[in-house]
Amino acid sequence: MATATQDTELVGSLVQLMHVLQDLYAETSRPLGLTPQQAHLLCVLLDGPLGMTDLSRILSIERSSLTSMVDRLERRDLVARIPNPTDRRAFQITLTDAGLALAHEAHNAYTTQIEKRLTDLPASHRKTLITAIATITGHAQ
Amino acid sequence: MATATQDTELVGSLVQLMHVLQDLYAETSRPLGLTPQQAHLLCVLLDGPLGMTDLSRILSIERSSLTSMVDRLERRDLVARIPNPTDRRAFQITLTDAGLALAHEAHNAYTTQIEKRLTDLPASHRKTLITAIATITGHAQ
DNA sequence: TATTGTTATACTCTATAACTATA
DNA sequence: TATAGTTATAGAGTATAACAATA
After folding, report:
1. Structurally, what CATH architecture does the domain formed by B30-118 represent?
2. Which of A9, A13, A42 is best to mutate for the B interface (most B CBs within 10 A)?
3. CA spacing 20 to 30 A to A104: which of A43, A63, B43, B47?
């Protein structure tokens, strides 16, 4: 059946796209002295400080794994643990000035690299892509 | 400018899609007793045996990193190092029967999970997606 | 000389289980 | 009791540098 074949092809395309983007993400992070995971963490914090539990949920890692990641970034003065005034158990993980600058730098670098790969894409396809991806990721457009 | 805004939105969509697919890949590998990297390796070998150098290039990792990955998979009898008859330095990394079965299982699991997310996607969007992704990943359609 | 693959080493990522402090 | 975060531990992924064997 034609539809089934197209589905299989699309799934393969998506997996391949994931790997291509992963490689690009890693290659772009490296010269900035960041692992892809560290870059992801910093970029998430661009939207504002978060507690450990929220951050671990967004990054899809255990809180204990996050503890050591934050330790390493804090040692490099890229993030800081700010005590939460309303809950003495909790912290707000915040970007330092250096962390903010590096997060912007990483974000710009990815954007530049990905945009390079979009140059051959017609405007109509871009619109469809945005809508289709929103459907796949399960978010409102 | 409208185009610039759409570009930014598309880049963000692609990065988010990457993370969603990564998480899905990890969650699907786990119950099979595989890390996402191990699953990737096994699935690459579905297309046939490969030497260490080729495999490291396809997986975008150093040969020395691959050595330890193959060690672990070989210990579990999922892959085997077959001596290359024409080059006594080289091996062909091959799926064992168990590895082949597990690679198929992993592949089917991803396909099922991803297809679940494609149900709401109109057929016309699927066709466009396949073409657009091919452009991004830089492959012929 | 160049290439194939490994070893040694160091660091990061990650999970599980048990824990402390606070709510 | 439940939640926020940490510690201890173990295993996996990764890179760099140096190496042995073969081409």
Report:
1. Orthogonal Bundle (1.10)
2. A13
3. A63
